């Protein structure tokens, strides 16, 4: 995959660039994510006024896009996808979704803290910027509280379960040994001793930031928790909005639920056949128990985990760049890191536009977890790295001669990104990287979980009948159901179910996205006939950058 010669920016490109500038100004954490360091010292306005400003801006840009003329296919994709994204922002705001934006994993309650993970800390000037943003944090929390308070007034609130879990998270950040205290204590690790005045400011402002999270916890406990609904289900109408946001496509929820039930059954059958290869006659739990006793498949400690992640990733990049993909040198650099938090989960953050900050794979290791099984996690490295997220997102960033900043850095959906990553897992199996039955069982373990999430997420939020015909779905049944379909401890299962209950539509986007990617590949193959090239299909699809899945299908098949 190679970049084409520089494309002359069009009026639609300029509208897209203007939207990026506007969005970065409204929400500087977006700027930090894409490497726009000029806004790193502040936060946006999380109050209702700030929300109104963003919606007004979205409406204005929709008007500009509608008045613009597309000059080529690149413009058609940009206008289609950007307009769809902006229109969904407006529709979501009108439905009151921002007023209830609180959950255990991806809401301002987490984002305001998590942005510090991405900020440069290599120089004294970097720490000056960190200090400025710490100073701004209490104001950001205050604005967020105002928005949640308006949600109480208007009856648009998150479920009580989410409020209770976020209270615990906020209390941890507010603690004397919480994130902000440790962050300030470790300041200067990369630079040496900081000037005394800066070190003092960092300590003072970190304490204020921690206190702000204490204020958030107090508000949640005294004002929101008692008023928040006990019902976890978001309902069909709001779920449809969320599903569209995470897929960039409209799906038949009832058909998808039934497909999820069938897909889960297929994953179980495939796992059972692999279990027999690992240990003749063994059930899946028995095969897993057998693998868990094999010392050669275990890593001890986070240092060993990080080293194994990096070595596995480096090997995949080197080998696939020779045989399957034309991977630019900039994308060959992928950093594998242990995250500074202990919330659980593995995630990827993309490179800055100039690749000065490379793509990074993060592992947030929960407290007390010290052993890791390589057979479970090999496919995860491919999912987050190459040919998964890093190849997908890195290629879009690299393709700057053709794609505007919005297309390279901000466009796309979970269904596009996570669907591709699951597609990539299956691709690695087809290429022989998961020939070891144990590694293949690990991949299927993840695929089974993703299929189960389709059923659980749609089932619980639409309060559908249970797969056995009884019902309806409840949170208690969701815990039991997921526990039967994943090989994880009870704390992981609880966290995952709480995530699904508070982030409707996101979890199914992985497996549904994979389904759409595979359907698209098959349709493209049928159309091309003897001329079909899987390498060309991948190149053409990834060169589009991140887009909604409806846009992807139109661009590839139109």
What is Rg? 23 Å
Q: Biggest sheet: strands side by side, in what order?
A: 2-4-3
- Overall strand count: 5
- In total, the number of domains comes to 2
Q: Tell me the series of helices and strands, N- to C-terminal.
A: HHHHHHHHHHHHEHHEEEEHHHHHHHHHH
The percent range for strand residues is under 5%
Tell me the helix content: 55-70%
Largest sheet: 3 strands, mixed
- Average pLDDT: 94
Shape designation: globular
Poorly predicted regions are: none
Name the structural class. mainly alpha
Describe the protein.
The protein has 558 residues and is mainly alpha-helical. It is 64% helix and 4% strand. It has 2 domains: 11-232, no CATH class; 244-509, no CATH class. It has 24 helices and 5 strands. Strands 2-4-3 form a 3-stranded mixed β-sheet. α7 (160-174) packs antiparallel against α9. The chain is globular, with a radius of gyration of 23 Å.
SSE diagram, text form:
Layout: H1 11-26, H2 28-34, H3 48-67, H4 73-94, H5 108-114, H6 124-154, H7 160-174, H8 179-185, H9 196-224, H10 236-247, H11 253-278, H12 284-291, E1 298-300, H13 302-323, H14 329-332, E2 334-338, E3 346-349, E4 359-363, E5 371-373, H15 374-384, H16 389-398, H17 405-410, H18 414-430, H19 437-461, H20 475-485, H21 490-502, H22 508-528, H23 534-543, H24 549-557
Parallel strand pairs: 2-4
Antiparallel strand pairs: 1-5, 3-4
